[in-house]
Amino acid sequence: MTMQTQFSAFLLAAALACGQDVALAQQNANNTNPQNHSAKQDMRNAGHDTKNAARNAGQATKKGAKKAYNKSKPGAKRAYNKSKNTTKGAVKGGKQSGKKPQ
Q1: Is residue 61 situated within a structural domain?
Q2: pLDDT of the chain along its 102 residues, tens only?
Q3: What is the dihedral of CA 79, 85, 86, 87, to 10 degrees?
């Protein structure tokens, strides 16, 4: 999977996670308890819902970032080792070609 595809999948997952929290917050706002019908309590409930949504979105972002890091780490190591070996080979080849034939 390319880095661009992984990043797109990560953004989609984050958007879906946030969308579910917003939908739940709206559902809770529509099903208010008649006993807590004051504006003050409504503001408190909205604040708590927002806090919970932000916490859930943060956890989803953390999980997605950690997964992307762990998935890309072996490929980065492999690319590093291949370029290191290629560079060593080029240096050796340059040294050999620079010698005068006997």
Answers
A1: yes
A2: 577 777 777 667 777 776 666 566 666 666 655 565 799 999 999 999 999 999 999 999 999 999 999 999 988 888 888 887 777 777 777 677 666 666
A3: 110
Per residue, the 3-state secondary structure of 31-71, as one string, reads CCCHHHCCHHHHHHHHHHHHHHHHHHHHHHHHHHHHHHHHH
Question: Using CA atoms in the order 51, 55, 56, 57, what is the torsion angle rounded to 10 degrees?
Answer: 100
Residue 53 lies in a domain: yes
Structure tokens at 48: 């708590």
